[in-house]
């Protein structure tokens, strides 16, 4: 490498180092700002205070709670409680979900009030935010003194301490400052057991072949006796499936067996009856098989119905180059959304033990209205089909479990047709309460309205305005920041 090339390479590495340091400092500044915002929306009560635990707030907090806001215990004992609705401003500003913002605020509160030494090193740019948050998440359940113990011992090495080292220190603090709880947890042998069915991580497309899998991962940790019983049942049913001519692959049959076990009781129950002589006899009886129930909200577009795209030719998928009309988009309560093949739907519904409910096709281009306040099922299904998620900025809650909110408030004395597919939008319960009840000190609330294409706004979307005057556009594809109203700048406070 000649001198000129070496100089260029050095400059590039220097640029990487400088920008990495600048990003670390910027992230730390943003994290501290989140803590400042949360600190401005705390109550005088603290986590662990009996007043907090019982919900008997002081007068101002109680009045605010009655208006729809609540105070959340986001940090450990000794940290102040935080107003729930202030978290939505953080979520919108950071373009993340409410749950992610809640975790962020909780970590900021934990560090600010219970781990001040680590917090100071983060604010100075000496410790990465992610490392500080990892420590905060580990100390959340410690007593106030236990957290202080961890803070004193880990602050000077917080920039390089591994997760295992932090966990060992936290375990020592728990044993030192809360021995009763530590001993009780040690005897809780079932504390490590869990079973997870990852419905939110459905396997859609194989990155290599592009095929649709329609599978989910299942993992867990069981009690040994339960595991042995489950293994015997799975092996038994898998063997039966093999004898019936199912797939020769034993792993596939075992996965099918678990679904069969879920739909039937493979054991024997006991039936008690009167023997007629004043005694009671028992008789073994096999439990009846549980019928599989399938409720399908299957969305079909024009191409799927007619076999053509816009009535002029085959419905070609521009991404794959294939027709793509043999796919169904499922929107079923309790199941993940997404595309599956028609063959897979047929396999679900082909069993004689299956009861299938098919909802009627909804034309989303048609609008419907009624005169009453409560929408009928046909309008509710239409609105939820149009909006798969809560329409609050960046919220990821499913519309299937959301409230339906009248964008323009319902007026009993108003004109007919106020409850319509044009005026109803899904809001999860948290954001519905916030939009309805939460009023900032400025007297302003979160508001939203449908977009107006005649004003150059995108169709089929809503625009939210925060109490600070910040605006966000939400459509079925997601959320993005939107310019302020002409002639108005966002509030500085």
UniProtKB/TrEMBL annotation:
It comes from the Bacteria. Residues 88-309 form the DUF222 domain. InterPro entries: DUF222, HNH_nuc. It comes from Nocardioides zeae. This is DUF222 domain-containing protein.
């Amino acid at each position: 490498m000649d001198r000129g090339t070496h100089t260029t390479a050095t400059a590039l590495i220097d640029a990487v180092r400088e920008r990495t340091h600048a990003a670390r400092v910027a992230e730390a500044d943003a994290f501290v700002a989140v803590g400042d915002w949360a600190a401005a929306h705390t109550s005088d009560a603290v986590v662990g205070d009996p007043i907090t635990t019982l919900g008997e707030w002081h007068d101002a907090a109680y009045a605010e709670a009655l208006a729809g806001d609540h105070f959340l215990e986001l940090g450990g004992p000794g940290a102040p409680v935080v107003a729930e609705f202030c978290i939505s401003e953080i979520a919108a500003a950071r373009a993340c979900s409410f749950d992610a913002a809640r975790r962020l605020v909780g970590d900021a509160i934990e560090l600010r009030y219970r781990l001040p030494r680590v917090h100071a090193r983060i604010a100075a740019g000496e410790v990465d935010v992610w490392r500080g948050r990892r420590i905060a998440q580990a100390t959340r359940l410690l007593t106030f003194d236990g957290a202080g113990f961890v803070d004193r011992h880990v602050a000077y090495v917080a920039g390089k301490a591994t997760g295992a080292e932090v966990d060992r220190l936290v375990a020592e603090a728990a044993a030192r400052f809360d021995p009763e709880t530590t001993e009780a947890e040690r005897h809780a042998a079932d504390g490590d057991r869990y079973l997870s069915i990852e419905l939110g991580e459905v396997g859609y497309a194989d990155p290599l072949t592009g095929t649709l899998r329609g599978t989910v991962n299942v993992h867990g940790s069981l009690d040994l006796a339960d595991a042995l019983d489950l293994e015997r049942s799975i092996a038994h049913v898998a063997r039966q499936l093999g004898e019936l001519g199912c797939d020769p692959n034993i792993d596939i049959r075992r996965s099918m067996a678990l679904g069969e076990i879920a739909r039937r009781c493979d054991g024997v129950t006991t039936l008690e009856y009167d023997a007629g002589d004043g005694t009671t006899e028992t008789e073994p009886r096999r439990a009846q098989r549980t019928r599989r129930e399938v409720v399908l909200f299957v969305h079909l577009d024009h191409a799927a119905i007619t076999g053509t795209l816009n009535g002029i030719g085959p419905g070609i998928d521009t991404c794959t180059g294939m027709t793509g009309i043999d796919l169904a988009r499922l929107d079923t309560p309790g199941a993940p959304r997404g595309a599956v093949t028609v063959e897979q739907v047929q396999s679900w519904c082909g069993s004689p033990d299956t009861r299938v409910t098919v909802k009627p096709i909804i034309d989303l281009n048609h609008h419907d209205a009624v005169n009453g306040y409560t929408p009928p099922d046909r309008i509710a299904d239409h609105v939820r089909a149009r909006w798969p998620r809560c329409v609050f900025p960046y919220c990821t809650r499913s519309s299937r479990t959301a409230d339906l909110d009248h964008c323009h408030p319902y007026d009993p004395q108003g004109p007919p047709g106020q409850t319509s597919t044009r005026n109803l939008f899904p809001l999860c319960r948290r954001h519905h309460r916030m939009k309805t009840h939460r009023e900032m000190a400025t007297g302003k609330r979160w508001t939203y309205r449908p977009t107006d294409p005649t004003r150059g706004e995108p169709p089929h979307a809503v625009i939210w305005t925060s109490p600070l005057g910040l605006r966000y556009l939400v459509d079925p594809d997601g959320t993005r920041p939107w310019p302020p109203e002409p002639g108005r700048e966002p509030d500085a406070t």
